[in-house]
């Protein structure tokens, strides 16, 4: 195969819907549309409830608002290519559009991890030093934490498009997923990808890996503080305030670890399994996080029920 003509074909990539079963793609259109609608509706409801209810104007709920915005942003990053494949049967995506989507998916994924760290810090302060909770986590501090999480994500992902653009592509231009990821594009290159692989590994360790360690240490300190509380009822109350956040952590990290393990050690598995895990990692947390917080947080649940009751009376 002529290298120059092969390189010319890579003005675009071909995204994959359901591997080995392209005739099944239309069946996924409506379930995916429902998931995206549920993501926007659920996170939009959380944001609206926190905005209108003055009793929810507390640091915990401001961080939840940032998480909801990040979830929607991450979900919307995958939306264009998903719609293109499953709704319009148009799997082709231009090289620049693919790189752009890749950038935003990785930015908002890392930003969400940073937000989960900040929420762990919020719970630590609330339980360890409740009297100074509001004075420590002021509006200004919360805003700076949110900006820092996004800035960190942008800074570490910023070199990735340039690392991809320097690579020559002379293999197949068919990607493994319904959206563009760094590791997926990288494997199609016909030159050494050692720099890309090393940089990607360093980024994962210093962001998601470090974040997971900080969250673990935060909860060890929280548990130590809770065990020092004399009343069992107060212990349960303190731990209950962390339950929703723990669920959000599990929803983010468990699919990520699962997808990473399958990608590295599950070469023998069906491509459908790889695609399913990758989609769960990106689509499930934005859908389930607002449901978890609505069910587990009494103030939010009460406010949502009140809104629906008022609409029914009207």
Protein described:
This is Olfactory receptor. It is a multi-pass membrane protein. Keywords: Cell membrane, G-protein coupled receptor, Membrane, Olfaction, Receptor, Sensory transduction, Transducer, Transmembrane, Transmembrane helix. One of its GO terms (cellular component) is plasma membrane. By secondary structure, the protein is an all-alpha fold. It has a single domain, classed as Rhopdopsin 7-helix transmembrane proteins (Up-down Bundle). It contains twelve helices and two strands; from the N terminus they run αβααβααααααααα. It has helices at residues 3-8, 25-52, 59-86, 95-128, 133-136, 139-157, 159-165, 182-186, 194-227, 232-265, 271-296, 298-313; strands at 12-14, 92-94. It has a two-stranded antiparallel sheet with strand order 1-2. α2 (25-52) runs antiparallel to α3, α4 packs antiparallel against α10 (232-265) and α9 runs antiparallel to α10 (232-265). Residues 1-9 have low confidence and may be disordered.
What are the main properties of this structure?
mainly alpha, Rhopdopsin 7-helix transmembrane proteins, two-stranded antiparallel sheet, 2% strand, disordered N terminus, transmembrane
Structure in a nutshell:
Helix content is 77%, strand content 2%. By secondary structure, the protein is mainly alpha-helical.
